[in-house]
Amino acid sequence: MELTSAFVLHHRPYRETSLLVDIITREYGLIHLVARGMRQQKKRSTSMQLFQPMWLNWFGRGELVTLNQIEIDEAAYRLVGNASLCGLYMNELLVKLLPINDAEPEIYDAYAHALDSLHRHEDEQITLRLFEKTLLSFLGYALLLTHDAETGEPIDDELRYLYHPDNGPKRVDESEVQHTISGRSLRHLHEETTFDATSLKEIKRMMRSTINYYLAGKPLYSRQMFAELNHYSAKSD
Question: What is the CATH number of the domain that holds 15?
């Protein structure tokens, strides 16, 4: 087969010298493959680097194939500090939510765009929320952000809503603030602009709950890393 563009999402040791690798490709979606001999340090450091654009192909059939050829002609996206954790979070979402061998070029493009944004030190929270929104949309879980799921009325900036992944936002009493989101924050996410600290905080909480729903109990270890880093930073302060 011809070379296809790809990124490594995760790799782990396999037998004495090989790696099991999860990759995302533009033409074939999520692929699980064996990279034989890649645990030799020189090969691994140059070709199995995370956030590295590459071209590769493989042979075999089924859910586990074997890496055949790999070429690299671009520099890796340089993600430092929190940006690196954001990249690991996106990688983990893709591994746990994408079906195997199902091409989703829009998701691949959204991932590459998010890596570029993190590389250029753009707002990490906005980058993650827009990536999550795009990912859910092309997986068939598009968010309803413009109308009340129960009444059909347009979302009102001044009202509060409870968002359920299966249905969408439902207006709640103003006294019910916990786990709700304002119409204003829903509008910001729909328009993908004019975010502020308040709307980003509410959107993050809503997206976390929504993604948890679709993960169906699968843990996200990158979230634990975020929590541990924040705890360490707070103790240092």
Answer: 2.40.50.140
